[in-house]
Specification:
globular; 318 residues; alpha/beta; 13 helices; 4-hydroxy-tetrahydrodipicolinate synthase activity; DapA-like
């Protein structure tokens, strides 16, 4: 089974038409642009895709449209009901999705390890030919630990890895107790603020990015510099840390509840009008948030244009 979980994958947001229904033509366009920019695949219907606001049918249509367009897509299985999550996984296998991002059961018995094990097993059983990673996030209120992961992997060979959205300590735990035990198990960094730490200190093979939807070149450069730093290059380490620090505020939007609002606004600043509207009419940045976002985006872009002139390993990795 090929392991899709390497490289940098942007988590696609759901663009909206004027009536706030999903614009799947714009979704496919964005997916193609991301692959053309050098991304290894895209993720659809994780938190960035606003999965709780879409029907299962809408989610399946978005996935199917991306697959039909030749875009390798990793499908988020977030659902309140395990039956829905299982149906989404079965659909992903049926249409030829490249991977699954297995999201824990939420709300109903979400803190129960046995309930989560059964939830995961149902999803993995429904798509046995699709490589899958379990998505660990404090937002979902359940942390998959090594014992549960390897119990599942023993029965489900399609479970090939782990996406960690937590901070430094959570990534360290995943590397120390899960992914370093078996070289066939992959770690993906799930939060934009920890790409360097995840790749260099935890052996991550890639990342799932939010900021990369707006800054694909820069997100890919950070990953490449980090990979080079992981081989022992002192210059790459220095430059990767400089870039990560400069991107920090923009990357930190990924950690908050307004991440979709911020990243859609960055796309609008890039000229992508199809991201101006949100599925819920009342979802909007406050004026202060929008102004801060714009100031930080302008500052970063000015800094980056100056910083890349230094050449050296920066030029090698671009």
């Amino acid at each position: 089974m090929p392991n899709i979980f390497t490289g940098t994958m942007p988590a696609l947001m759901t663009p909206c038409k004027k009536d706030r229904s999903p614009d799947f033509d714009a979704l496919v366009k964005k997916g193609k642009e991301m692959i053309a920019a050098g991304m290894s695949a895209v993720v659809y219907c994780g938190s960035m895709g606003d999965w709780p606001l879409l029907s299962d049918e809408q989610r399946m249509e978005g996935v199917e449209r991306l697959v039909e367009a030749g875009v390798p897509v990793v499908v988020g299985t977030g659902a309140v009901n395990s039956k829905s999550a299982t149906a989404l996984a079965a659909h992903a296998q049926k249409v030829g999705a490249a991977g699954l991002m297995v999201i824990p059961r939420v709300l109903s018995r979400g803190t129960s390890a046995i309930a989560q094990k059964n939830h995961f097993k149902s999803i993995l059983n429904a798509a046995p030919d699709v490589p899958a990673i379990i998505y660990n996030s404090p937002v979902y209120g359940f942390a998959t630990r090594a014992d549960l992961f390897f119990a599942l992997r023993a029965e489900h060979p399609n479970l090939v890895g782990f996406k960690e959205f937590g901070g430094k300590e959570d990534l360290r735990y995943a590397a120390e107790h899960i992914t370093s035990q078996d070289d066939q198990v992959t770690l993906m960094v799930g939060v934009d603020t920890e790409v360097f730490h995840g790749i260099v200190n935890c052996g991550a093979t890639g990342s799932i990015t939010g900021i990369g939807t707006a800054l694909p070149k820069e997100a890919l450069l950070l990953a490449t510099l980090s990979q080079k730093a992981a081989t022992g290059s002192s210059e790459a380490r220095k430059r990767a840390l400089e870039l990560e620090e400069a991107m920090y505020v923009l990357s930190s939007f990924d950690e908050g509840t307004d991440l979709v609002l911020y990243y859609k606004h960055l796309l609008v600043l890039n000229g992508e009008e199809e991201y101006r509207l949100h599925i819920n009419e009342t979802d909007a940045l406050a004026d202060a948030q929008r102004n801060y976002c714009e100031q930080q985006y302008a500052l970063f872009r000015t800094w980056f244009a100056d910083w890349v002139k230094q050449g050296g390993v920066i030029a090698e990795c671009m």
